[in-house]
Amino acid sequence: MPEKDATIIMESLSSAMPHIAFPVELRELIERERVGCDCIETFVEKFREKISKIHDVTRKTDGQIFLNELKRNIAKSSSD
Questions:
Q1: What pTM did the predictor assign?
Q2: What is the per-residue pLDDT for 80?
Q3: Secondary structure (3-state) at 80
Q4: DSSP per position, 7-68
Q5: Rounded to an integer, what distance in angstroms lies between the CA atom of residue 56 and that of residue 7?
Q6: Domains in the chain: boundaries
Q7: What is the pLDDT of residues 5-55, one digit of tens each?
Q8: Distance between CA 30 and CA 43 in Å, rounded?
Q9: How far is CA 55 from the centre of its chain?
Q10: Angle, helix 40-52 to helix 57-79, in steps of 10 degrees
Q11: How far is it, in rounded angstroms, from Cα 37 to Cα 20?
């Protein structure tokens, strides 16, 4: 994955952290899902699929909060 994409992911996680109930679990999930991704679009697809399978509402919400922040940051970086 290009360094720019990895930076966007980590910045998104950082800015979402104040709103996350289980930050350690979310960080671990993000790290696991990043492995093998060649670009940020692949990561988003894998991550979206993974959180859709989570049954705990709070953990699923944590994932969605991060994903929303990530999408916002991707759009912002594309417009720069």
A1: 0.92
A2: 64
A3: coil
A4: HHHHHHHHHHGGG-S-HHHHHHHHHHHHTT-SSHHHHHHHHHHHHHT---HHHHHHHHHHHH
A5: 28
A6: 3-79
A7: 999 999 999 999 999 999 999 999 999 999 889 999 999 999 999 999 999
A8: 9
A9: 18
A10: 160
A11: 24
